[in-house]
């Protein structure tokens, strides 16, 4: 595995790989690699000849009150995990080479980036959209694998690819869960043991929704309210939002229509850690 830190060097390698007709798969991360990231690498390995893993803690997607400076950066451990996962190139630039002095351009997301997570974290998705687009230009992938856990981020990336006519196939990877049902996430390391077990309430909420829809309950806001109550009555947990949305625009849906697909989005605080999760349903 080669470690590259300079964008122009990564670009030159990617260009050469393309000239040699190598299929490039990219997995973008902020490091602190876990089972979820490794499942993305595995998917990339299955569908591409060359796998590029990027590690960059992107300052422009963090709010002023967020955890940019505390964000875990176990680089040596990440290198070992990436090697073991048979990554070909690890692209790990520093902030100065991605946003040099006098950097000025930011991608502005439309309505999809302003709802839900976008409303709670103003500017977050503009930061994500900008770095993902820059990393597309630097790594020149044919395929890019993103986790379904960040469902709104995934929808925004699909929208960017569509709106900007990028010739990249976006592959959605299933959510990896701990035994308790808690979705694997880099921020889970901030949870105490007690909070970690309480946090499985989000997954229990998803299971409750699944049961309600199987029982042909039609009123989605009522199901969401029940899940909010489940979260609120779990010690140390507080619901931020629970909502059923349509898959494309992420607009709230009120009533179930037979044969349609919906996504349940959940955000909740467990102690001081904000967690998100989601589940997809077909009525
Ligand atoms: O999902 C993440 O880890 C980040 O938002 C991403 C896509 C790597 C962009 O910084």
Can you put this structure into words, describing what you see?
It is a single chain. This protein has 283 residues and is of the alpha/beta class. The chain has 2 domains: 2-173, Rossmann fold (3-Layer(aba) Sandwich); 186-278, Pantoate--beta-alanine Ligase, Chain: A,domain 2, CATH 3.30.1300. Helices cover 37% and strands 20% of the residues. The protein has 10 helices and 9 strands. It has helices at residues 7-19, 35-47, 75-84, 95-98, 117-120, 124-139, 151-163, 193-198, 201-214, 220-232; strands at residues 2-4, 24-29, 50-55, 89-91, 143-147, 169-173, 237-246, 261-270, 273-282. It has a 6-stranded parallel sheet, with helices on both faces. Strands 7-8-9 form a 3-stranded antiparallel sheet. Helix 6 (124-139) crosses helix 7. It is globular and about 55 Å long. The N and C termini lie far apart (45 Å). The mean pLDDT is 97. Pantoate binds at residues 28-30, 58, 61, 128, 131-132, 150, 153. The site of pantoate has 10 residues, from strand 2 and helix 6.
Task: Kindly summarize this structure in a few lines.
The chain has 10 helices and 9 strands. The strands form 2 sheets. It has a 6-stranded parallel sheet with strand order 1-4-3-2-5-6, sandwiched between helices. It has a 3-stranded antiparallel sheet with strand order 7-8-9.
Keywords:
283 residues, alpha/beta, Rossmann fold, Pantoate--beta-alanine Ligase, Chain: A,domain 2, 2 domains, three-stranded antiparallel beta sheet, 10 helices, 20% strand, globular, binds pantoate
């Amino acid at each position: 595995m080669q470690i590259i830190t300079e964008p122009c060097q990564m670009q030159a390698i990617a260009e050469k790989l393309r000239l040699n007709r190598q299929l490039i798969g990219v997995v973008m991360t902020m490091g602190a690699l876990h089972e979820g990231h490794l499942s993305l690498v595995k998917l990339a390995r299955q569908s591409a000849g060359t796998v590029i893993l990027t590690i960059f803690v992107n300052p422009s997607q963090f709010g002023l009150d967020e955890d940019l400076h505390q964000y875990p950066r176990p680089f040596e451990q990440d290198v070992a995990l990436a090697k073991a996962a048979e990554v070909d190139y690890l692209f790990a630039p520093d902030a100065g080479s991605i946003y040099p002095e006098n950097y000025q351009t930011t991608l502005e997301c439309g309505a999809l980036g302003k709802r839900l997570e976008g409303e709670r974290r103003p500017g977050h998705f503009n930061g994500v959209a900008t770095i993902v687009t820059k990393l597309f230009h630097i790594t020149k992938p044919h395929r890019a694998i993103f986790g379904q856990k960040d469902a709104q981020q995934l929808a925004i990336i699909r929208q960017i690819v569509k709106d900007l006519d990028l010739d990249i196939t976006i592959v959605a990877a299933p959510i990896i869960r701990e035994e308790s049902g808690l979705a694997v996430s880099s921020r889970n390391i901030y949870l105490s043991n007690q909070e970690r077990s309480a946090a499985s309430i989000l997954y229990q909420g998803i299971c409750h929704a699944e049961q309600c829809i199987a029982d042909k309950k039609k009123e989605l806001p009522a199901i969401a309210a029940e899940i909010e109550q489940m979260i609120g009555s779990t010690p140390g947990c507080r619901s931020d939002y629970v909502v059923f949305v349509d898959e494309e625009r992420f607009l709230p849906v009120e009533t179930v229509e037979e044969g349609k697909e919906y996504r349940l989005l959940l955000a909740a605080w467990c102690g001081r850690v904000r967690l998100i999760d989601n589940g997809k349903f077909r009525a």
